[in-house]
Amino acid sequence: MKMLAGLLLIPTLLTGCAQMGETGNSMSTFEPKQLGKSDIDRVADIHRREVFLSLRALTEKLYRRNPREWKKSGYATLEATLDHLLDPRTGWRLPELGQKQGTEAILLALSTNYQGDRVAAFIAGTGGMLNVAFDEKTEFFMFDTLEPQKLYNSARNLEIAAWKLANARDAGGNLLLLTNEMAAQQQPANLSFERELGKMIGNLDLLSHIIADREHRTIVHVTHSLATAVFLPVLAIK
């Protein structure tokens, strides 16, 4: 409880520092909308921002490791592809995926017969799932209530997605998408993909427990084998 109480003070302190400005006494950065936020709202804002920053970093890493995928998008540059895919106005819905969203889009991205941009499908599915977990909001105010079970289930789904991403292969045994690279002679292993996914999972887990503790709610915990696990529901949770 003491640790959670300390965490809830973090955004308040950060806001106070921002208000001080570079001169130490300027109040020019104060935003009136902050008056409508509780400490838990500011905590949720921070965790959501960090989760989607990691998602953007993961997207760029996947495209740089698999350049053939972004070239399927039709955009001239990687940056243009990123801007289109991560534009929140799209609602994480891609026309080329039909009706598939969330975890269904993730599964499509890693199916052997899919011929489209696998990275786009994987990220759109992941972003859509996370967007639902955060109730399709980009920031939170006093009357907003997040469902901790959605956040927890999304964290478990990211674990499953990470395992599938690292292991999905075609009929010839080749990885569908290249991610982590094991160490060669005198070279460190490239585990940056795992790190970004790990940060997202950690943020979701911590926020789910903060909210559950604050609102005296119970999270149903799930134990699963990643190799055989199925995705947990997120959209269906009310």
Spell the H/E element sequence: HHHHHHHH
Mean pLDDT: 85
Number of strands: 0
The proportion of strand residues reads under 5%
Question: What is the overall shape?
Answer: globular
Global structural class:
mainly alpha
Oligomer: single chain
- The helix content is 40-55%
> What's the helix count?
8
Layout of SSEs?
Blueprint: H1 2-20, H2 39-65, H3 67-70, H4 78-85, H5 102-109, H6 118-133, H7 148-167, H8 192-215
Plain-language structure description:
- This protein has 238 residues and is mostly helical.
- It has helices at residues 2-20, 39-65, 67-70, 78-85, 102-109, 118-133, 148-167, 192-215.
- Helix 7 packs antiparallel against helix 8 (192-215).
Any descriptors?
mainly alpha; disordered N terminus; single chain; 8 helices; 238 residues
